[in-house]
């Protein structure tokens, strides 16, 4: 995110003696919150040579707003080269969690003002997964996805209590037709669907997906059978 307008930026470039950029770097690519720990922490390092403000905000997804997650110190000054521990508190639920939940957390760098320097802020937008206390960990929840074709629609049904992360491209087999799905995740106990392109073949009976670990690392490819249902 730039903290100057484009016109101001071009004008300042002509007058400035230097260009300045700053950035905060979280320790991992995912904030994992365990219900039984009632929160989590994330270390964030100021990799720049000057102090900056760190602004942290949790964003609820429209399709998964609960449970609530609070940042205890949303704005803090971090010295150059230092590490700031950011603490998150999980709001109590009326009943124990049964499924994983997904949010996003944004770590935004706000550089300090200085003469003859352009200030560019950087934002890291990471996923947050909230895990129920009694839910066992499995590495490959995508194996339990159910794929259904009905007319010119293909659906992916996630009956598991786990969040499934995957590329937004799947491949129908044996034709090799590619289909775009609406989002790079499937929430527990939900179904997503996509329109099949005109080029798809009714002989396609398998789908090849490209899943990711909870930390976003590619897991190669996985093939599932497609169930055919009448319209």
TrEMBL record:
This is Fimbria/pilus periplasmic chaperone. GO terms for biological process: cell wall organization. The keyword Signal applies. SUPFAM superfamilies: PapD-like, Periplasmic chaperone C-domain. Residues 23-135 form the Pili assembly chaperone N-terminal domain. Residues 1-21 form the signal peptide. One of its GO terms (cellular component) is outer membrane-bounded periplasmic space.
């Amino acid at each position: 995110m730039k903290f100057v307008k484009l016109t101001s930026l071009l004008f300042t470039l002509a007058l400035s003696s230097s260009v300045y950029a700053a950035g905060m770097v979280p320790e991992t690519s995912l904030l994992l919150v365990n219900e039984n720990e009632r929160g989590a922490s994330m270390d964030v390092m100021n990799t720049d040579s000057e102090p900056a403000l760190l602004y942290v905000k949790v964003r609820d997804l429209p399709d998964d707003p609960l449970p609530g997650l609070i940042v205890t110190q949303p704005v803090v000054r971090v010295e150059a080269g230092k590490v700031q521990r950011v603490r998150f508190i999980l709001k109590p639920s009326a009943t124990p969690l049964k499924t994983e939940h997904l949010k996003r957390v944004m770590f935004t760098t706000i550089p300090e003002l200085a003469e003859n320097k352009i200030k560019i802020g950087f934002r890291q937008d990471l996923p947050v997964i909230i895990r129920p206390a009694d839910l066992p960990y499995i590495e490959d929840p995508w194996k339990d996805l159910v794929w259904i074709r009905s007319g010119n629609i293909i659906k992916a049904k996630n009956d598991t209590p786990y969040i499934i992360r995957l590329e937004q491209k799947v491949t129908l087999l044996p034709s090799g037709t590619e289909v775009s799905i609406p989002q790079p995740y499937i929430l527990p106990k939900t179904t997503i669907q996509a329109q099949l392109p005109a080029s798809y073949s009714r002989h396609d009976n398998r789908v090849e997906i490209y899943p990711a670990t909870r930390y976003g690392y590619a897991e190669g490819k996985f093939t599932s059978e497609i169930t055919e249902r009448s319209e």
